[in-house]
Design goal:
The protein is mainly α and about 450 residues long. Among the domains are: about 5-110, Orthogonal Bundle (Hypothetical protein af1432), CATH 1.10.3210.10; about 145-240, Hypothetical protein af1432 (Orthogonal Bundle). It contains 22 helices and two strands. It has helices at about 25-35, 40, 60-85, 95-100, 105-110, 120-135, 135-140, 145-155, 155-165, 180-185, 215-225, 240-265, 270-285, 290-295, 300-325, 330-335, 340-345, 350-360, 365-390, 400-405, 420-430, 435-445; strands at about 230, 235. The chain has a two-stranded antiparallel sheet with strand order 1-2. It starts with about 25 loop residues before the first helix and ends in a 9-residue tail after the last helix. About 45% of the residues are buried.
Length: about 450
């Protein structure tokens, strides 16, 4: 086990490291680049679970990502200290510095951008993209290589995140955000190409990079110590840092979605308080007396639920940290196949009950299902408006087809590229849209809303 090879300061789009007087570490710079990027800002108008309801504040993709990053930073700090203590004799001087002072920045950065490839309307947006190609297979499939076609019919937000972060758009700087290889490796939950997906294997449940990113991903994997599972089709075992990012994400959405459901009246105060209290007792029985005493002093219902939420997240963070540490060598070797959060849920019925309640009453709530249906139709029709014209030779396009493509910004148009590259450009544009922008454009091209806005 060589822990000295799990990280690299190399950046996408740069052959050599740039030396500056910047007091920040390379991994701190990653965090700042993501925060100030337009793709990160757009997350503020992408639905997390609930349609944004106006006066009642619930989470969107941006606030979710910030909270995941906060939990991830804590985990990264704790686990970095664990690695430093347990494997000190195996670490170089540089690596000791990394695990003590930089791992938490890598995890915080990866958590910030773990959802950056999710299209508008989340999973229903992914479904719309995949289904568009499936329904138009007769007209489209013959234009692409088998692996390219697999990218389209299995469109995946995780793979799209790698593309969004590393893509060199037309007339723009090479390498996308130019993040370190380490940060990108830490978000690759499914490090395989699309034809390698296998839902029964954790690192192949979905896929993690498009054909357009394959050579770049191979370079990232080689420089961050990722273990190759197979060359054809290309697949790797997860990088050890991925598991930390996944823990932070799982903790946040499972607990915070319940808090949002309470704010929206989907779950009563009494039921929400009971579920979180039972969970904390399951995880922190020795501390429950103190927690309950403090809870009874809080008279505002929302404040009481927020207090329980904070205690639940804190407890889950520490328990998941221990699970990760206890299984670290299996994780490192690629022989670990169970999400850490699921291990905790299997031992704590209260957590399993929250997961099931969320499936039954939150993720299938009528308002959520309505926006998923609407989002699916919006995304499907946008693709139907743009993809057929982009695949026609520009000399053969009719006027309305030329007009359709005029709506796509120039950086997403690859007229001199292959059909695959042309379609990927359209997908970059459509998948990068916010919910509101996609809906507004849909209304305009459908004639539902006509005229100029001032």
């Amino acid at each position: 086990m060589d822990l000295n090879k799990l990280y690299s300061e190399k950046r996408t789009g740069l052959k050599n490291k740039t030396f500056t007087n910047d007091p920040r570490s390379e991994f701190q710079r990653d965090y700042d680049r993501i925060i100030f990027s337009s793709s990160f800002r757009r997350l503020q108008n992408k639905t997390q679970v609930f349609p944004l309801p106006g006066s009642v504040f619930v989470h969107n993709r941006l606030t979710h990502s910030l909270e995941v990053s906060s939990v991830g930073r804590s985990l990264g700090s704790l686990i970095g200290k664990f690695i430093l203590k347990e494997y000190e004799d195996n670490l170089s001087k540089e690596s000791k510095e990394f695990y003590e002072r930089s791992l938490y920045n890598v995890i915080a950065s990866a958590c910030l951008c773990h959802d950056i490839g999710n299209p508008a309307f989340g999973h229903s947006g992914e479904d719309a993209i995949s289904t568009f190609f499936e329904k138009n297979e007769i007209d489209l499939k013959g234009k692409f290589k088998p692996k390219e076609w697999a990218d389209f019919i299995n469109f995946e937000g995780n793979a799209n995140a790698i593309r969004a972060l590393t893509l060199t758009q037309s007339n723009k700087a090479k390498g996308g955000l130019k993040l370190t290889y380490t940060t990108i490796a830490a978000i690759a939950k499914y490090p395989c190409e699309s034809i390698a997906t296998n839902k029964s294997i954790i690192h192949r449940k979905k896929f993690g990079f498009f054909q357009s990113c394959k050579s770049q991903f191979r370079e990232i994997a080689r420089n961050t110590g990722m273990i190759t599972a197979d060359e054809e089709p290309l697949m790797y075992f997860r990088h050890p840092f991925v598991w930390i990012v996944e823990i932070a994400d799982d903790i946040c959405y499972n607990i915070i979605d319940l808090e949002d459901a309470h704010k929206l009246g989907i779950i009563s105060y009494e039921r929400c308080r009971e579920m979180l209290s039972v969970l904390i007792q399951c995880l922190e029985m020795d501390e429950w007396g103190k927690i309950d005493q403090q809870l009874n002093k809080i008279k505002d219902n929302n404040a009481a639920i927020a207090y329980l939420r904070s205690k639940a997240i804190n407890s889950l963070t520490r328990i998941c940290q221990y699970k990760y540490q206890n299984n670290f060598e299996e994780i490192y070797s690629g022989n670990f196949n169970v999400p850490i959060f699921d291990m905790v849920a299997n031992e704590c019925k209260a957590l399993k009950d929250i997961k099931q309640f969320s499936i039954d009453n939150i993720y299938n709530h009528r308002n959520v299902v309505e926006i998923e249906n609407a989002g699916y139709n919006v995304m499907y029709d946008l693709l139907n408006h743009f993809i057929p014209p982009i695949l026609i030779d520009k000399s053969d396009r009719k006027k309305y087809e030329k007009k359709a493509l005029k709506l796509i910004p120039n950086q997403f148009i690859y007229e001199d590229g292959t059909d695959y590259e042309k379609v990927m450009g359209v997908l970059d544009y459509v998948s990068g849209m916010t919910d509101n922008y996609a809906t507004e454009l849909f209304r305009k091209i459908k004639g539902i809303e006509i005229g100029m806005r001032t």
